Each structure stands twice: as structure tokens, then as C-alpha cells.
Amino acid sequence: MKSKIYDSPRVALDGLLYDGMTIMSGGFGLSGNPESLIPEIRDSGVRDLTVISNNAGADGFGLWILLESRQIGKMISSYVGENKLFESQYLLGELELELNPQGTLAERIRAGGAGIPAFYTKTGVGTVVAEGKPVETFEGEEYVRETWLRADLSIIKAWRADPAGNLMFRKTARNFNPNMATAAKVTVVEVEEIVPEGTFEPDCIQTPGIYVDRIILSTINEKRIEKLTTRSREIMA
Fold first, then answer.
1. Full-prediction pTM beyond 0.85?
2. Which pLDDT tens digit goes with each residue over 128-174?
3. Is residue 110 in some structural domain?
4. In whole angstroms, how far apart are CA 199 and each of 37, 180, 193?
5. pLDDT at residue 153, rounded to an integer
6. Which domain holds residue 172?
7. In the chain, how many domains are there?
8. Is residue 54 domain-resident?
9. 125 within a domain of the structure (yes/no)
10. Residue 134, Cβ neighbours under 10 Å: how many?
């Protein structure tokens, strides 16, 4: 069987990138971002990308660098706030935005991986989120129909992988990453550690290797704190 382990982010993305493609990018805030793979997408020069991600990084980090290079044409996201570049490009009409409630975004991705073309939810009924979408009544309540999300490529970050591609995530880095691994034609994973086959107990595997095509060791593991909140230390009498 061909090895899933590649030597570098650039090699792992070789032959996968092209103009106009759709990419899912894991992460929530700055937690669990595929921070080694994103710079390689920038350096490839591909353009007019549709990117599905909860947000778009923060100043100078994560997907922000693809916004700065004007390689993203459309974002399918949940959280726009606090990313001034994201906000500016959208308000200037330079970036198309499909805004989703956060739970709806997660479920659309999960549905894409599960082969469920559409589902109904109360979230967004009566708001701009529901504009242009079918609304039906179930047991006296209105529900808006949402459709699945799928991608040409998913780039995700995990904590550990074995050679078969079985993954474990660490704490809040287990956000959109596991679902995105299931919802693309090709999934490329960067991990902090590659462990020998047989290391994982089956019950500890959070994403089975059947969903993973390529694995690389992370070259960037900054784990930045987006907002550091502290309080003054109490002075002991």
C-alpha cells in the first residue's frame, strides 16, 4: 500500500491545487489551524478559491494570509468579527461571503461527509439566513432547508496520526477538523506527531484513516493566543 506520509507540506499538496477550487480549512479561532499547509497554498499562486472555514484566521496568521494575497474569492463562514481584513474586503465588494450560523455550518459539513444532501433547521428562520431557501412546517414550526457542504480539498490539523491515517485531536483543536476530514475528495492532514502503527487503542481514534489521504509533520506549531485575558495577582497581606 502506498504510504500516506509525505516529506513536507509542499510535497503533500503537489498536484491537488488549481484555480477556482473549493477548500475546507479546519480550525476555530486560532485553535487547530492547518498553519503549515496554508502558506504553501499562498506560495502556489492559485486564485479564485472558495474557502469553507469557521473564520479566516487573525492578523498575519492562518487564512488571513490568503486574504492578504487576494487568492480567496468567496468565504463560507460563521464568524467574521475581529478580522479587519476580512471585514474590509467584504464591505468593499472584493470578497463574496456566505454567512452561516455556527451550528448550521458544522452540520452542513457533517452532512457533506455523511452523504446527506439537505436537512431542516429552525436556526435562521425569519432572518436573512433563510432568504432564497425553502421553508417548511413540521409539527406547527417553521424550518429552513440547508444543503450539504463538500470540497475538493480539506486541510486539517490533528495532534497525532499513525501511518494508516488514524487521527487523534487535542482538546479544542477537535473542532471542525474531524467533520472536514470526511467531506472532501482529498484530505491532507498536518500533525504534531506520527506514531507507530498499533499505538492507538481503537476507542481512542477520533477520525479513522479511511478519510485521510496524505499526512505531514507540522512545520509550524505556534499555538498563538488570540486574546490573552489576565487579572492582577492578589497581594497577600
1. yes
2. 999 999 999 999 999 999 999 999 999 999 999 999 999 999 999 99
3. yes
4. 26, 24, 12
5. 98
6. 9-117+149-217
7. 1
8. yes
9. no
10. 11
Nearest to 201 by CA among 168, 224, 227: 168
Is 129 within a domain? no
* Per-residue pLDDT tens over the stretch 177-217: 999 999 999 999 999 999 999 999 999 999 999 999 999 99
Q: What is the CATH number of the domain that holds 178?
A: 3.40.1080.10
Beta-carbon contacts of 108 under 8 Å, excluding residues fewer than 6 positions away, are: 100, 146, 147, 148, 149
What secondary structure does DSSP assign to the chain, as a single string? ----B-SSHHHHTTTT--TT-EEEE--BTTBT--TTTHHHHHHHT--SEEEE-SS--BTTBTTHHHHHTT-EEEEEES--TT-HHHHHHHHTTSSEEEE--HHHHHHHHHHHHHT--EEEESTTTTSGGGTTS-EEEETTEEEEEEE---EEEEEEEEEEE-TT--EE--GGG-SSHHHHHHSEEEEEEEEEEE--TT-S-GGG-SB-GGG--EEEE-S------SS----PPPPP-
Q: Judge whether 95 and 89 are in contact, CB under 8 Å.
A: yes
CA–CA gap between residue 79 and residue 125 (Å, rounded): 19
Does residue 76 contact residue 104 with C-beta atoms inside 8 Å? no
